Automatic annotation (TrEMBL):
<dbReference type="Pfam" id="PF08527">
    <property type="entry name" value="PAD_M"/>
</dbReference>
<feature type="domain" description="Protein-arginine deiminase (PAD) N-terminal">
    <location>
        <begin position="26"/>
        <end position="106"/>
    </location>
</feature>
<dbReference type="InterPro" id="IPR013733">
    <property type="entry name" value="Prot_Arg_deaminase_cen_dom"/>
</dbReference>
<comment type="similarity">
    <text>Belongs to the protein arginine deiminase family.</text>
</comment>
<keyword id="KW-0963">Cytoplasm</keyword>
<dbReference type="InterPro" id="IPR038685">
    <property type="entry name" value="PAD_N_sf"/>
</dbReference>
<dbReference type="InterPro" id="IPR013732">
    <property type="entry name" value="PAD_N"/>
</dbReference>
<dbReference type="Pfam" id="PF08526">
    <property type="entry name" value="PAD_N"/>
</dbReference>
<dbReference type="GO" id="GO:0005509">
    <property type="term" value="F:calcium ion binding"/>
</dbReference>
<feature type="domain" description="Protein-arginine deiminase C-terminal">
    <location>
        <begin position="289"/>
        <end position="354"/>
    </location>
</feature>
<dbReference type="GO" id="GO:0005737">
    <property type="term" value="C:cytoplasm"/>
</dbReference>
<protein>
    <recommendedName>
        <fullName>Protein-arginine deiminase</fullName>
    </recommendedName>
</protein>
<dbReference type="GO" id="GO:0005634">
    <property type="term" value="C:nucleus"/>
</dbReference>
<feature type="domain" description="Protein-arginine deiminase (PAD) central">
    <location>
        <begin position="108"/>
        <end position="278"/>
    </location>
</feature>
<dbReference type="InterPro" id="IPR013530">
    <property type="entry name" value="PAD_C"/>
</dbReference>
<dbReference type="InterPro" id="IPR008972">
    <property type="entry name" value="Cupredoxin"/>
</dbReference>
<dbReference type="InterPro" id="IPR004303">
    <property type="entry name" value="PAD"/>
</dbReference>
């Protein structure tokens, strides 16, 4: 409860009129000159404690000492303004009264509340509402970034406007409740105000719910209806605003909207203060006599690994990928998942659903996106989403990563040359905290994406997954074995323009030299992944994939890159490699199946040769998968 001390009468000079701070009345500092004793009287609802080393005398007087203070509280809230009082009489001698001060008191209960224990209920005055703690026994309210679009026709991020245009938009916000209990009004001049800092004003908005002013009678007024019902209270341009005090026992609902994810300049925590302001004389600013606060943490941006259950698959339709669409549709729908095909008029000829166009095509209710703009850095293909992967959950040297670790591709660490993922993107990824990134060397590739040489698939044993790595060594080992078995005349790219026999391929010394270089690059990354993910060699499967140097001494897959696959539970959609046939079956497909089937995985080979591979991409580059979220709650991590 908050108590309003109102000094209503004085019968002597030199009695200070500002002697109550936080329910503590300092008697010694505000006593008249020559006062030696005091006596206190108060109404039944007032509780008053006088800390002293001396017992009260028989006449009720107490000696006035430097430590003489009154601690004031009340048994219940007031029914009216100034309905309780407390008086202090000061004495020079026991019979010589110097003066008397009378305080009229108003008790009001005020609490700003949030869901601090994360159970979906905004409980009253949770003791942890003003702080935030990670871990399974942690606490603190959570705030989402409102980066989806409730509109089906205006593809703008909801947070781009400072208005609530649909009630459904409130579901993306966190509820905050102002609870008050007391008389019908506050004492004259007192008021409540919500406040945020300038920096927090860039990260959140606060809207207030108020009762609608009657039913709207025309459809064209629906937009304004929502705006009026949920007016903006706090934001970047409004850092402090008075909020209503409603008499009796009442609640006022607010909705807090997150505007940005954690980043290099924003740790993710925001604070909202509720202050009771006391009027000041002579036009001085109002002063806070009571402040309650709540703390939110903005939820981080989280990636989902291949081991999580798929929900929906997205691909693009272009003028030349009908065969690809037909085959991937059979895989997706045959696996029991939803397929969303974005038509060419929507994708504007961009087929790379994983890499570049997914944020435009799949934006809608409960489906958002985030972008980062590089102001003074050159943007390269390494800044595409194909250069972002995430591992399944791992434990490394005793430290658990329950949400896995993000994997990015960059330039080689010891060189200042080459392409790199922009710093603004890297800073953003590291700022999320819950999926600590790992940087691999990917600039050796023409496109430069980590998904060109690695992926993860689920497994029934060990760590619950396998890391798949492209391996020229595994490819040459397979081809040499086939040659030794008498299949040297079998053709890679059989029936394609650039078909070549195994004998010719294996005699190409330049190609072999290029793949030795590629293997060295992959081996360097292999060591990093083993160390950073806590993997053993038994957790890694090498896939027979060759590469070829194309431009600027950078490589691309020689034949369709089988590691660049789509993972749908135990179903794999793999680029069809068009390898040499043995007994009528593609030897590369047979080898791939022999590696995946023991893990309980089935392989479907999809022809992406003309529509993706020749454009330096594959199945994974041309698709995107929405998956179920982690069951592990990100706030339960020990950070």
């Amino acid at each position: 409860a908050v108590f309003f001390p109102v000094l209503t009468s004085l019968s002597c000079e030199n009695v200070c009129d500002s002697f109550v701070v936080g329910g503590i009345l300092v008697l010694y500092l505000c006593a008249p000159a020559r006062a030696k004793y005091f006596a206190v009287q108060y109404t039944p609802n007032v509780r008053c404690k006088v800390p002293t080393t001396e017992a009260p005398q028989s006449d009720g007087l107490q000696r006035l000492l430097p430590i003489s203070v009154l601690t004031i509280s009340m048994n219940k809230v007031s029914e009216g303004v100034n309905d309780n009082k407390l008086s202090i009489a000061y004495y020079r001698e026991k019979t010589e009264e110097l003066g008397k001060a009378v305080l009229h008191l108003t008790a009001v209960e005020i609490s700003l509340d949030v869901d601090a224990d994360r159970d979906g209920v905004v409980e009253k005055n949770n003791p942890n509402k003003g702080s935030w703690k990670w871990g399974p026994s942690g606490h603190g309210a959570i705030l989402l970034v409102n980066c989806d679009s409730e509109s089906t026709y205006m593809k703008k991020v909801d947070s781009s406007t400072d208005k609530v245009t649909k009630v459904s938009d409130l579901l993306d916000m966190s509820r905050m409740v102002l609870r008050t209990n007391g008389p019908a009004e506050l004492p004259q001049g007192y008021k409540l105000a919500l406040q945020i800092s300038q920096s927090d004003g860039e990260s959140i908005r606060v809207f207030k719910k108020r009762k609608p002013e009657g039913a709207m009678k025309s459809l064209h007024k629906i937009f304004s209806m929502f705006v009026k019902e949920f007016p903006l209270v706090l934001g970047n341009d409004v850092l402090s605003q008075e909020v209503p005090y409603v008499g009796g026992s009442n609640e006022v609902d607010f909705f807090v909207e997150g505007l940005r994810f954690p980043d290099k300049d924003f740790g993710g925590l925001v604070t909202i203060n509720l202050s009771l302001l006391e009027p000041s004389a002579q036009d001085f600013p109002e002063t806070p006599i009571f402040t309650d606060k709540v703390v939110f943490r903005v939820a981080p941006w989280i990636m989902t690994p291949n081991t999580l259950k798929p929900v929906e698959v997205f691909v693009c339709s272009t003028s030349d990928n009908n065969k690809f669409l037909k085959e991937i549709k059979a895989l997706v729908e045959g696996s029991g998942y939803k397929l969303n095909i974005c038509k060419e008029y929507m994708n504007r000829g961009d087929r790379w659903m994983q890499v570049s166009c997914h944020h435009i095509l799949i934006h809608g209710p409960d489906f958002g996106y985030v972008t980062r703009m590089a102001s003074d850095e050159k943007v390269t293909s390494l800044d595409s989403f194909g250069n972002l992967e995430v591992s399944p959950p791992v434990t490394v040297n005793g430290r658990a990563y329950p949400l896995g670790r993000i994997i990015i591709g960059v330039a080689f660490p010891t060189t200042s040359q080459g392409r790199n993922m922009t710093k603004v993107v890297q800073d953003f990824l590291w700022a999320q905290k819950v999926q600590q990134p790992i940087a691999l060397y990917s600039d050796w590739l023409v496109v430069g994406h980590v998904d060109e040489f690695m992926t993860f698939v689920p497994a029934p044993d060990r760590k619950g997954f396998r890391l798949l790595l492209a391996s020229p060594d595994a490819g040459y080992k397979l081809f040499h074995r086939l040659q030794n078995e008498g299949y040297g005349k079998a053709k890679q790219f059989d029936g394609k323009k650039h078909e070549i026999t195994l004998d010719e391929l294996l005699s190409d010394k330049a190609l072999r030299a290029e793949n030795l270089y590629v293997q060295n690059c992959i081996d360097w990354n292999r060591d990093v992944l083993k160390r950073e993910l806590g993997l053993d060699d038994e957790d890694i499967i090498d896939l027979p994939i060759l590469f070829k140097i194309l431009e600027d001494n950078r490589a691309a897959a020689y034949y369709p890159d089988m590691v660049n696959m789509i993972v749908l539970g135990n179903k794999l959609g793999i680029p069809k490699p068009f390898g040499p046939k043995v007994n009528g079956r593609c030897a590369l497909e047979a080898e791939m199946c022999s590696l995946m089937v023991p893990l309980g995985l089935s392989c479907t080979f999809i022809d992406d040769f003309a529509s993706y591979h020749k454009l330096l991409g594959e199945v994974h580059c041309g698709s995107n998968v929405r998956r179920e979220p982690f069951k592990t709650k990100w706030w339960s991590l020990e950070l």
